[in-house]
Amino acid sequence: MIMKKQTQISEKAYQSSGFIRKYQKLVSDVVIPWQEKILWDDAPDTEKSHAIANFINAGKVLRGEDPGDGFYGMVFQDSDVAKWIEAASYSLMNTPDITLENELDKVIGIIVQAQDEDGYLNTYFTVKDQDKRWTNLHEAHELYVAGHMIEAACANFEATGKRVLLDCMIRNVEHIYDHFISKGNPGVPGHPEIELALMKLYRLTGNSHALELCSHFLNERGKDPELFINEASKRDWSVWNSNPKDQGDLEYRQCDRPLRSLEKATGHAVRAVYLYSGMADFASETGDDEMLSACRRLWDNIVKNRMYVTGGIGSTVQGEAFTADYDLPPDTAYAETCASVGLIFFASRMLENNIRGEYADIMEQAFYNTVLAGMALDGKRFFYVNPLEVDPGISGIVPTHRHDLPVRPKWYQCACCPPNVARLIESFGKYAYGENDDTAFCHMTAAGTVRFRNGMVLDCKTDYPHSMNVNYSVSGTGRLAIHIPGWSKEFKVTVDGKDHNAERRDGYIYIDVNGKVQIEVVLDDTPHFVYASPRIPRISGMIALRRGPLIYCFEGIDNGSVKSVRINRNSKPCVSAYSAELGAHTLLVDSFIEQDTDELYTEEQPVLGPYEATAVPYYTWGNRGETEMRVWMQ
Ligand SMILES: [Zn+2]
User: Fold this and answer.
1) Which residue among 3, 70, 113, 153 sits deepest, i.e. has the most Cβ atoms within 10 Å of its Cβ?
2) Of 504, 523, 542, which closes a domain?
3) Rounded mean pLDDT, 451-471
4) What is the pLDDT of residues 250-284, one digit of tens each?
5) Rounded mean pLDDT of 448-460?
6) Is 583 part of any domain?
7) What pLDDT does residue 408 have?
8) What pLDDT score was predicted for residue 1?
9) Ligand 1 geometric centre to CA of 336 (Å)
10) Pair 73, 220 in one domain
11) How far is CA 1 from CA 282, 351, 477, in A?
12) How far does the centroid of ligand 1 lie from the alpha carbon of residue 439, in Å?
């Protein structure tokens, strides 16, 4: 069956309730104000940001004034401000707040002052050395930063209707177009991101130069493997001292071969999924089947060979990168929060090309596990790295595990993950719901009200992901497509109280709506074991636990020594009491516990006693102090 392309809804069309509302409120009330303080260097006990000061000082440079204390921070420090603006703008759509809107206007006013007459906007180069603009695409992230600011501009316009930042970024895109296309200067982004941002701008404004630039960057990428080597030969400075002659570096930067010939997901995981999202966006907009085929191969490689059961990707700290098929170590995992956010972006774009439940399944898997685990339950601390196993005393300490922290720290100098989580949560409706001319799509179960373009109004009531009963009140005329998650082998649908014999097609059921209907979907809420493939070293033969979209883990605080627990795989895990502290139900599993011994090795057979092990949702781990944690159990 040929489907008309569907796209994300506008975030304004979704008013959340339930679980998503709780998280959006947390982000609006805690995360966004706190990030704002950091950007203004107004937060005590955190690393200095200087991000807004950089824009103020860049404005002074352009006016010929003394640049004050100059530039401070990472070469991509501007992107922290961009991501905050994006998240705060989405927050305005969910939670109108005139004070926040005024504060956004103030920051945007400062940014506009930092834009050069020719449209150039980047405080690192404007403050430090304007002659070095566009001479180090390999390392200096100018196009990456521009991409984030374009995304911020689109979100701010969508939220407020104000064009100040949007017009600023359109001028910036014209500047970039002039440099790379009109003047024909060679170059592609060292760090992909701008591709998907240009597609957003094109879809919002119809700006054809944005589409042309995206096409240019995608088609040029990997064509000339010497590109960055030639670039480096023309300059005598460096940001990171990375070597463009290193072939590994080319793969790390996803520019070792043309994108259309890519077979495997390689290199820096966040860059990879941002790039693939841009490719899938472009394919969906232009009908480029060759590009789409590459996206499908990359998608399959990620989800069939290179993804953790928690939806985490990028298994090594070395370059925050993909490694090899089936290399998914639980304890030295990298699985950056941002990479799972990017995987959701990629999945959402793949859904635009084809309605297939597997894309929606992976969005949920990444969101409800790695992305939510990235943020503490109080919204104040964040994980950059999301291991599936920690041992206090080893994790975060020994050289091989230094990156795998057992508790969330407050803020990082490289502050990419917290604002990424914030912007995703605040724009959740875009990922949960989609539409085309005749069909409204529910890709992820999300409580709240949605107003579709075709006039259909849907109200979803549910305690998902804690309850698997979902009630939809729908009015209007058209077709409704509801995703039934792949993990729910059994499900039941009633329409106006009568059994609806719904056939699942590619993961979705379709219901024709004419007038008002009540639809109830009951998904399988039984906890299940998940078995690891024998091809995955270290966890083959082990099991994990899942209920609905939630992967569970075992913590020392509930179980003593988790390493001593052996799960009885013939048992049936059951739902236990509700934990108010975690805001979730725990699970109980019949297990055995091995008696402790201080002998490193012994010829005595271990003594096993009966034990009832407690599991908690993975996204809640590490919220009760430093304690052992495991997803995969013997
Ligand atoms: Zn990150």
Assistant:
1) 153
2) 523
3) 96
4) 888 888 899 999 999 999 999 999 999 999 999 99
5) 96
6) yes
7) 87
8) 38
9) 6
10) yes
11) 22, 15, 21
12) 35
Distances (CA, A) of 177 to 149, 184, 212, 496: 16, 9, 8, 55
Identify any residues that bridge with 584 across adjacent strands, giving them in sequence order: 579
**68/186 same-domain check:** yes
412 Cα–ligand 1 center, Å: 10
CA 294 distance to own-chain centroid? 21
Shared domain check, 108 and 78? yes
Alpha carbon of 418 to ligand 1 centroid (Å): 7
Q: How many domains does the chain fold into?
A: 4
Q: In the 3-class helix/strand/coil scheme, how is 295-309 assigned residue by residue? A: HHHHHHHHHHHCECC
For residue 436, is it left (φ>0), alpha (ψ between -120 and 50) or beta?
beta
Centre of ligand 1 to C-alpha 257, Å, is: 25
**371 CA distance to ligand 1 middle (Å):** 10
Look at residue 413 and tell me whether its pLDDT is greater than 90.
Answer: no
Examine the pLDDT at 52 and tell me if it is beyond 70: yes
Per-residue pLDDT band at 524 (split at 50, 70, 90) = very high
Residue 46 alpha carbon to ligand 1 centre in Å: 17
Q: Domain check: are 179 and 314 in the same one?
A: no
Angle between helical axes of 194-205 and 164-177 (0-180°, round to 10):
120
Structural domain range at position 339: 267-428
- Residue 387: name the closest of 225, 567, 555, 565 by CA: 555
pLDDT at 411: 62
Based on the fold, state whether residues 331 and 313 are members of the same structural domain: yes
How far is it, in rounded angstroms, from Cα 370 to Cα 302?
Answer: 15
Distance in Å, CA 147 to ligand 1 centroid: 16
DSSP H/E element including 273: helix 269-286
Residues 626 and 612 placed together within one structural domain of the fold: yes
Give mean pLDDT, residues 116-140: 96
Residue 262, domain member (yes or no):
no
Q: Which of 151, 285, 320, 389 is catalytic?
A: 320
Nearest alpha-carbon partner for 344 in 453, 403, 423:
423
Residue with tokens 């020719």: 118
State pTM to two decimals: 0.96
Position 514 scores a pLDDT of 95
**Same-domain status, 54 and 172:** yes
**b/e 150-169 (16+ beta carbons within 10 angstroms → b):** bbbbbbbbbbbebebbbebb
Tell me how far the alpha carbon of residue 60 lies from the centroid of ligand 1, in angstroms.
31
How far apart, in whole angstroms, are the C-alpha atoms of residue 314 and residue 312? Answer: 7
Residues 573 and 602 in one domain: yes
Return phi, psi of residue 449, to 5°. -115, 135
Q: pLDDT value at position 169?
A: 98
Question: What is the distance in A from the centroid of ligand 1 to the CA of 34?
Answer: 18
What's the whole-number average pLDDT of the chain? Answer: 94
Q: Provide the 3-class DSSP secondary structure of residue 137.
A: helix
Question: Hey, what amino acid is at 428?
Answer: F
- The yes-or-no answer on residue 320 being catalytic is yes
What is the structure's pLDDT at 4? 59
Catalytic residue among 214, 255, 295, 416: 416
Polymer length of the chain: 634
